[in-house]
Structure formats: structure tokens, C-alpha cells
Amino acid sequence: MNKQEYLAQLRAALACLPEGEIEESVAFYTEMIDDRVADGLIEEEATAQLDDPKAAARAIIADLPVVPRTVVRTKQRNRALYWTLVILGSPLWLTLLLAAGMLVLAGLLTIWCLILGLWLLAAGLLAGGPLGIGVCLWALAVGQPAYGVFELGSGLLCFGLGLFCLHGAVAASKTLMQVSRQWIAKAKAPFVKVKEEGAAAFVGKETVHES
């Protein structure tokens, strides 16, 4: 079959997917065919080196995240069952989805509040340094050097502890940002295909075809 016939069959086999997913997959296979034609093959030879359109569509669907893949396969097998599950099951899956989202959000907010507390503690302790110096100067001015020395030492101690807390707050914030991104990525993984993963999967398929 030629290029247009191949892409038409592929598009038909992917009709159960959202339009954006279909266009992305068709564009990828269009590029694969064009590359082979540029290497000197005719369109029929180029398409013959690729998987059958239905097999290619199955591979694309299998590469989807868990939830969209399940939805697509249910839709393929029985459209009536698909819409029945969507309509009648909406109270259940919407509730579960909302609960999962709130759980992730609550966990992130709790951890970020702890980090915010550490930043506030560091700021308060750092402020103790200038405050101690100010009180020391005041004490010396009113003739109470012992009190001034005590306040200066306390202020410097607070400032040192503040630097220690500041270092910990910076390190904890960096770590938490990485953990937050990983947590969000894991929460999205069953529903959304990450672009980098999709690209890697496509590259892997092309390597198999070429070999």
C-alpha cells in the first residue's frame, strides 16, 4: 500500500483515541515513511517495512498510561458498555479522583508548611544577631557593660543558629521540590503520558522497524 492508504488505515485504527493523540501518531509514521522515501525507497517499499496499521495502532494504544489505555480498550470492545460505565460510574470515579487529588495536595501542603516553619525560624534567629548588637550598644551607653556583653553573646549565638537553620531550609526546599515533582509525576502517570517517555517509545519502535 502507498503512504496515503497506510496513514488512512492507521487513522481509522486509532479512531478511539483523542484527536491530538491520533495526529501525533500519524505525524510520526508520516515522518518514518518520508525518511525511507528520502533514502531511495518507493512508498510501497517504505510502508512494507513498517508494522501493519492495525498492529501499529495496538502498539500505540499499549503505550498509553493505565487509565486511558483501559478506557480506550473498553471503548473498542463495546461502545454501549463504555458510555454506561462513564455515566453510571461517574459518581464513583469522580469521587475517587477527587479524593486522590486532595490526598496528594494535603501531603504536599503539610510538608511545605514544615519547610516554611523552618524558614521562619531561620529568619527569626538571624534577626537575633543585629538585635543583640543593638541591645549591647544601648547597654554600654547606659553603663551596663555586663548586660551588654551577655546580649551580644546571645545575639551572636542566635545568628549562628540562624545560619545553620538557613542552610537546612535551603537544602530541605531543594529536596522537597524534587520530591514534589516526582510525587506529582507519579500521580499523573496513570492518566497522562509524559512527552519524554512517549518520544523514547517512538524512537524505540523506529529502531526495531529499521533493524
As residue ranges, the low-confidence spans are: 195-211
Q: Biggest β-sheet, characterized? A: none
What percentage of amino acids are in beta strands? under 5%
C-alpha Rg (nearest Å): 31 Å
Order of helices and strands: HHHHHHHHH
End-to-end Cα distance: 21 Å
Q: What's the rounded overall pLDDT mean?
A: 77
**Helicity, in percent?**
over 70%
Category by helix and strand content: mainly alpha
Helical region count?
9
DSSP strand count: 0
Bulk shape: elongated
Topology overview:
Blueprint: H1 3-13, H2 19-38, H3 43-48, H4 53-62, H5 66-77, H6 79-88, H7 90-141, H8 145-188, H9 195-210
Helix pairs in contact: 1-2, 1-4, 5-6, 7-8
What do these coordinates show?
It is a single chain. This protein has 211 residues and is an all-alpha fold. Helix content is 86%, strand content 0%. The protein has helices spanning 3-13, 19-38, 43-48, 53-62, 66-77, 79-88, 90-141, 145-188, 195-210. It starts with a helix and ends with a helix.
Quick structural overview:
The protein has 211 residues and is an all-alpha fold. It contains nine helices and no strands. The protein is elongated and about 100 Å long.
